[in-house]
Amino acid sequence: MEWTGARYTDKPAVEVRTWIDAPPERVWAVVTDVEAMPSMSDELESVEWLDGATGPAVGARFIGRSKHVALGEWATTSHVVECDPPRVFAWAVVDPDDPAAIWRFRLEPKDGGTELSQWVQMGPGRSGLSLAIDRMPEKEQKIVFVRMREFERNITVTLEHIKKLAES
């Protein structure tokens, strides 16, 4: 994948895939347990459903608290924008109409198991990264490139954790 030259307004995206030796329904149970996601992430500290929600449904909201050495600590509210069990689970960060990011899991039956992909699109709405770009506009492409590489690395680690949990 190549992000060289990408700007935030380009809505850069990255996707990572893995095959899991478990049926989609089992993988679905793991990927939709958002409150367990912090145990799979170096950045995500905690997640909790809001408004009495206890699981995924279009329109449900959850708050995530994160920490990053260069970006500090922050909390964002995410809105479930796609929920098609056991195939697609997606959420928009901050504003579903102008998201800071969109995250999506896709599950597909394959070879007796599940092909799982996790995808993220940055922007178009403002995020903490927008503040870094505002401070150093001449470094926007480098800032975006580095963040996309971090997303790719973090997604790879998350998928490894999901694979272990679903296969156990």
From TrEMBL:
CDD domains: SRPBCC. It comes from the Bacteria. InterPro entries: Polyketide_cyclase/dehydratase, START-like_dom_sf. SUPFAM superfamilies: Bet v1-like. Pfam families: Polyketide_cyc2. This is SRPBCC family protein.
